[in-house]
Amino acid sequence: LPNSKIDLMTCISNIEDILQVIQMKRNEPDEEYKYLFEEAQDLAKYTETIIEMQRVVKRQINRDNIPASFANEYFKLNIFIPLLDHFIVAIKDRFS
Q1: Is residue 62 part of a domain?
Q2: What is the mean pLDDT of the chain?
Q3: What is the per-residue pLDDT across 28-41, written as a single tens digit (0 to 9) for each?
Q4: Considering only CA atoms, which of 44, 52, 45 is closest in space to residue 72?
Q5: Which of 6, 17, 75, 92 is 20 to 30 A removed from 62 (C-alpha atoms)?
């Protein structure tokens, strides 16, 4: 740790703050996701890559398959929100 003299109550408070921020982003993901997707688009332009959504099939086994009309909506529903959910669960499991 950079500062080994930090006390337990400060650590718990910091963890609760981090959890609260992630939960706020999870409850209203549109603004944060819009920013991240725009950054991804800029990076894709720089690397001459096209952002496309995965093929959606009726029966899916290995990955989520939430239907979406556009690539940005697809990635928000299938990657961004589940990732935030995973962070929330992992933090709660680790620190409770």
Answers
A1: no
A2: 85
A3: 999 999 999 999 99
A4: 52
A5: 92
Domain that holds residue 83: 68-96
Q: Which residues contact 80 (CB under 8 A, 6 or more apart)?
A: 29, 33, 36
* Token duo for residue 5: 């003299």
Query: What CA–CA distance (Å, rounded) separates 31 from 24?
Result: 11
Structure tokens at 91: 């933090």
Identity at 37, one-letter amino acid code? F
What's the confidence (pLDDT) of residue 72?
Answer: 86
Give the C-alpha separation, 76 to 46, whole Å: 22
C-alpha–C-alpha distance, residues 29 and 74, integer Å: 13
Structure tokens at 64: 């989520």
